[in-house]
Each structure stands twice: as structure tokens, then as C-alpha cells.
Design a protein that fits this description.
Layout lengths: L13 H11 L1 H19 L8 H21 L15 H33 L9 H14 L3 H24 L2
Helix pairs in contact: 3-4, 5-6
């Protein structure tokens, strides 16, 4: 028996009926808008990706390097607020010296940040024999007492793991 409150599609058009039902759902509408927005953003800026922290630091470093080179050439930008004392020759040279020192200090700070990021990113040295390989070998020997085929397989995996670790260490990875 068909319930009395059933509102089926008119003329048997199930696709239009389901589409109408989906468009009344706020979750579906929000998802469709998010997808359309993502597609538009991707079409406007193809291949544009967020810069990595290292790339951002590199850009900062390049800007500071340019400021430092300008300061060395003597074309350092003067401060926006100029007083009468700064307009004298000696005061201008000290301001230029300060801007050089400031640029050099910022340059060194960014170099330290980059070195810290590199230190975090460098892989830690691997031991010749990893504890997991030893554990796998011991488990293989114990299990081989109950199930010789499975224990032999575990022992073989442990042996191959040991060989791969030694070869990786020899290659310097």
C-alpha cells in the first residue's frame, strides 16, 4: 500500500524530483557553493599553491639582502621622518650606518631561522640494526615453535629487514 502523504515525481521524472529534493537541503546547497568556489579559485589561479615556510623565509631573506645591498651602495632609504639634525651630513651617515646594521641584523636573524628549519628537517641517523628487526626475529623464533611456516616467514622478514638496514647505512641514507 502506498502512503497517502507520498509525493512522487510528476510524470515519472525521478531525476528532476531528486534534484528538487536535494536543492531544498541546506547542506547540499552549501556543499555545492563550496565546490563551485573551489573550482573558480582553481581556474583563476592555475598552479598557484601556498608557499612553504622555507619559501617564505627565502623571500624575506631576499628582501633583506636587497636592502643590505642598497645600503652598501649608499642608496639606503632614509627614514620617512626627517628632523633638522638628521639632515646634516654626520647625522645622515649615522642613520645610514644604523640602517646597514639593522639590515645586517635582520639578515642574520633570518639566516638563523632558516638554519633552525634545516636542522629540524634533517633526518636523524639510523642505527645499523633497528629494534623492530630484532623484535621481529625473536617473535619469529617463538612462533616457529607453534607454527613452523609462519614463524619461518617472520624470521625471514626480520633477516631481510636487517639486511636492508645495513645496506641503507652503507649507502649513507
Amino acid at each position: 500500500m502506498i502512503p497517502a502523504s507520498y509525493e512522487g515525481p510528476s510524470n515519472g521524472d525521478y531525476v528532476a524530483y531528486v534534484d528538487k529534493l536535494l536543492r531544498t537541503n541546506p547542506e547540499f546547497v552549501r556543499t555545492q557553493r563550496a565546490i563551485a568556489s573551489a573550482i573558480n579559485d582553481a581556474a583563476e589561479t592555475p598552479g598557484d599553491q601556498a608557499a612553504s615556510p622555507a619559501a617564505l623565509l627565502r623571500e624575506k631573506l631576499q628582501k633583506i639582502r636587497e636592502v643590505a645591498e642598497q645600503a652598501q651602495r649608499g642608496g639606503a632609504a632614509r627614514p620617512a621622518v626627517k628632523t633638522h639634525s638628521m639632515q646634516t651630513g654626520a647625522a645622515a651617515q649615522t642613520a645610514q650606518g644604523r640602517s646597514k646594521a639593522e639590515a645586517k641584523r635582520r639578515y642574520q636573524e633570518i639566516e638563523r631561522e632558516i638554519d633552525a628549519k634545516k636542522a629540524e628537517a634533517t633526518p636523524k641517523p639510523r642505527p645499523w640494526i633497528q629494534p623492530f628487526s630484532i623484535f621481529l626475529g625473536v617473535v619469529g623464533i617463538v612462533v616457529s615453535q607453534f607454527s613452523p611456516s609462519f614463524g619461518s616467514m617472520l624470521s625471514l622478514m626480520a633477516f631481510l629487514s636487517l639486511i636492508s638496514n645495513v645496506l641503507a647505512k652503507i649507502k649513507g641514507k
